[in-house]
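Extended Data, panel c. Modelled sequence:
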Amino acid sequence: MQYRVGMGYDIHRLVEGRKLFLGAVEIPYTKGLLGHSDGDVLIHALCDALLGALALGDIGEYFPDTDPQYQGIASSRLLKIVKELLDKSGYKINNLDVIIIAQEPKLIPFKVHIKEKICALLGIAQDVLNIKAKTNEGLDAVGQREAIACYATASLTRGE
């Protein structure tokens, strides 16, 4: 049995005039995440964790913010492309662990829906993905409600 582990991280500034997407779920809030795509930090961190576990670089190498084809793209489409790379590798997702760091909005009411959405996109059982939501206790840009950040860890296996 071969094992791989990857870690991902992303942060985006909260701005007015944008919708807030986390885990491909639209979250009702007065601001959204600024980004070349839809700014979904959760999916971006997951993509980086999976790419890292596969030793395939990072999300910016595959989906550069200088490429107009990714302008405004739903991050769920990016995750599907990363999933195709994963499928070609022969590795399977063993476990995913995600920490969303947001002072606001409160994410507890949305965690189940986010989990269902991500599991459906990746074709994995719900007991393979864990999602935690934390605040930054008022500290730094996240704590001051200026940004949302996310960390993700991916554990992959191949072989019997």
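Residues 87 and 93 are 10 Å apart (CA to CA). This feature is highlighted in the accompanying rendering.
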